[in-house]
Here is the input.
Amino acid sequence: MKLIAGVDIGNSTTEVCIGGIKEDGRIRYLSSCKRATTGTKGTLANVSGIKDALEEAMGILNKSVNELSLIRINEATPVIGDTAMETITETIITESSMIGHNPSTPAGAGQAVGTILYMEHLNQGKAEIPYIIAAGSETTYEEIARQINQYSNRLNIAGLILQADEAVLVWNRLKNKIPVVDEVKRIYQIPEFKVAAIEVALVGQSIRMLSNPYGIATLLKLNGEETKAVTPIAKSLIGKRSAVVIKTPHGNVKENILPAGEIYIESDQIYSVNIDSGAERIMEVLENAGTIKDISGQADSNIGNMLNNIKTGMGKVIEETDRNIKITDILAVDTLAPVPISGSLAGETCMEKAVGIAAMVKTEQLPMRKIAEELKRQLHIYVKVAGVEAIMATLGAITTPGTTLPLAILDLGGGSTDAAIIDRDGKVKATHQAGAGELVSMLIQTELGLTSRHTAEQIKRYPLAKVESLYHMRLENGGMHFFEEPVEPKYFGNVVLLHPDEMIKIEEDIPLEKIALIRKEAKRKVFVKNAVRALLKIAPDHNLRSISNIVLVGGSAEDFEIPEMLMEEFANYKIVCGRGNIRGTEGPRNAVATGLVLSYAGGSHGNE
Amino acid sequence: MGMNKPSILIYINEADPDILNEVCAGIEEEGIPYEIFSKEEMDLEYLSFNSANDSILGAGIGIFGGKVALSLRSLPRGTYIYYLENPTDSESRNIGANGARAVKRMPFKD
Here is the structure.
């Protein structure tokens, strides 16, 4: 029996399928495996990943790689995806003037206005002025309470700001009950002798006065012009449990609209659209533009730099000059990004408007032949570049039980969303769209303000749960799960991800519901939008109803909720849509690699 | 013993006063009631296990000399959420805070 291997190099994974060809020409599928793609798709760096994958797949059969008589590599579509994100607004505070945060236990609900006075200057206080006292953590809670009690006979002390987490401890010992805000880390950056307003929310509520521009105006006696200036502060304090706003006469807070710039879409003519007009408008212009030759951005604007970076980055990888690299598709998505406010006291952030963009770069040809030659040189096995990726994927997809022609496939990958339709005569029409799994990860990372992309990828991949006791957790679908042994204390009360091997604790303090909502929205914004966009392009008469079957393949088709989202969407068009099951065993993976083996047996081996 | 008030119980024997003070401060800051009882048993395991089991809230802290341990009712005897010998002030404060957080179903402080 002759052994041949099909190898599919994708943006994120390299997949291998090993088939045995019997004397009568029939195929037996023997093994398959997947590995992370080494380097960018289409570069020589891929070779080491391919070799590892081949070794693993042959290892399953207890054979070595050199027993292969042929390796078939896909003629990869010369598209590479990349993503970028740009905020289009920013908030600047030119003088430190606010603290808005969520200490778990502030004390004494209410609001207070007064002049900031450091604890050690209490003896300089004047009787007629209301004060807000700021106390550092070097003084014990007992001492702070004692001094405030002592001076409250002589001075008008309206509120208290603490550095340590001791608000309740101090408040319990005060004779006059006043609002106390605690856990202000950089307490000595609060400017002394300036007028400030503090607020602590009622139990179970968030602050009301300082998150409202007129509330701030009332407390700090602001005029119309000044009220306008504090609006960004009020906006960024929404939902907080406690806050401090300091009136700085020369301070200035403003919301800048960054010069986001125009996108130029070049087809038969050049269409231009401003980033400010939002993702929906950008996509509309893009759809009406027809066949796109290139997309670029206004020079020296954010979008211009962003698209240039994508081109230069891709240029480095595939060793072509920027001129030859054309962006042929983008997917723009509206999003919100928590951006640190420049000039804030405690590292506060503000949700700024942003646009996330996935771009697809088309090059003349990916150097697959170079990869094939290098592989041949290293392994001394005949390597052939065979077959167009879309056709191979469709061939592989047909091995899913229950499929008939005509058939559409949606290849949900890491870098791009590809679609192909194969009609009754076996003719294939294919398209590639920018935006897939990697854009989803980027959106999750930005909107949740995560520091690591890795965490965002894991949130994308696994369902959530909250550990409610040492013995049970509440799953995101409302179910309960009980543990045999008490869970480790570090998980207690935390939101976790249900990785099959172990629970992953989410370090950031974000409610489960918010994470789940953002995750689902990101997937919908990218995959549902792109699936419809792709199929409309290749459907007969551009009518989705003329499609009867869709098979989902590719890495993101393994996701635990994306296939269901697409099924719901396409049910509206009476289309049978589902996750592929390649060869009845592989799930949605391995379609291209399988297609490569299958096409060999399909008669092309005569000319090898 | 007639203890029906919902509170975290602290069972002590010859407790280091600094540890006790900080543990109490930790619980107080989190806003949960607590009660202190002096016991005769010379055994941290006993103090900790029984305090948790006697507490209506199911959380208890044992302090024996310079040793302190936080237990929950659901845990088997001899296992603790936290156990420390001669803790620093801030470690003692955190044990108290985490006892309260266990009751509030909130993540523990490190």
